[in-house]
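User: Hello! My lab partner asked me to get a predicted holo structure for this protein. The small molecule is zinc ion, SMILES included with the sequence. Please write out the structure tokens.
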Amino acid sequence: MRGSMFEKLTNGFCHDIIMLEYFSKSIYKVCYGNGANMKHPAERLSEINRLAVLRSISGRQTFTKMDVVREAHLSLPTVNGILAALETECYVVPNGNGESRGGRPPALYRFNPVARYAIGIKVDSPTIAIGLVDLQANLHRVVEYPFDDDSTSEYIEATLTQGILDILAEQKIEPAKMIGLGIGVPGYFERDTGTWLGYLPLRSFKQIPLRDLFSKKFGVPVYVQHASNIYTFAEIQKSPLRLRDDVLFITCTEGVKASVVVDGQILSGDHGNFGRLGHFTVVEHGRTCYCGMKGCLEMYASGRSIREEIKAKLLQIDGIADLNDPALPYRVFQLAAEGNEICRRLVEGAIPYMAYAFATLINLTDIGHLVLLGAYAEGGTYVADLLRHDILQRVPKIAGVQLFVRAGNRLTKEDFVISAAMPAIQTHLGFRSAISF
Ligand SMILES: [Zn+2]
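Assistant: Hello! Below are the structure tokens for the protein in complex with zinc ion.
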């Protein structure tokens, strides 16, 4: 069965004009690469045609050759040749005959989603999650390993390598069936090279050339992205949002980061940090931040700051025993929404800082649709309404009319690894990826 995520990213997408434009660019990349692997024009054309067929069949339950001819705008002999090759490669499986319309009943085929797999990885507190995802975005397996501020580069690299090998071995998948790796990391990475430059809270960290390292190890393309963009991508799949909507997603985990979606693209920036809201100054000469600056939003309204405040004030909260529990910030927002007095004071103390930073982002981007993710999402309408009220004081009246603030879905590790794997799957099937690389 195809998943809803896949449906949204194929049917909802492939008729989009922007997609066509992007598609020609991605084809250029596929065919030309960086210029070193220049292909002969005939080879380029056959690659383009093959992707057109894959795109046409990958979201369908069953299809006939004529369906592909019509949708991919190719001749019957071309489609015959490509489908025969795809059948040999196990992408296409014969599926009996269709209904006769007078003549011979047409042969039916179906797309085989388990012909190939992608690996999706989320590296962010409190875990490294690694998932095996098929070509129709079905998750076959997910495993987790600890990740915290003491995780070293060596540990992360070894965990990713062994985790991928283990999952392939356990699921009896030949490495040749893996088509790509998507990795979401916090902090900064170099967009051009896919090198993870750092994440400030990690106490011992050296750069990891994620793209180079893992593309050499596994012989597949590697897509490095910011972890927050994975959360945003997962939310888009779960919500009624159209990918074309312009939306600001603000994720609170230990830190805070915004993801900005414009015209269906999750913007990246040079270091994957477009929407780096956590280190926006909300208090001049305020509390010293781990980034070296003072008065950053993360010092007042993040998972980290809420934990620190509970510790510093020795607050006793029913239902919260372990102050180092990664779920603590989520629980505080949830309890606040349920009416817990102490948690309400904590959350309401953070709201003015959030409103100040978010209003600035709204004013800068002219996007008035705000979705709260992570710990903020647990606050539900209670937090969304308070925030909306405070933001309205800080945006021009005319912009405030269309201000829409809501809490997003509760996202799981399963959602994250599927999202992380999607760029690899989409590119393999000739679709546009929503994340800019
Ligand atoms: Zn900072």
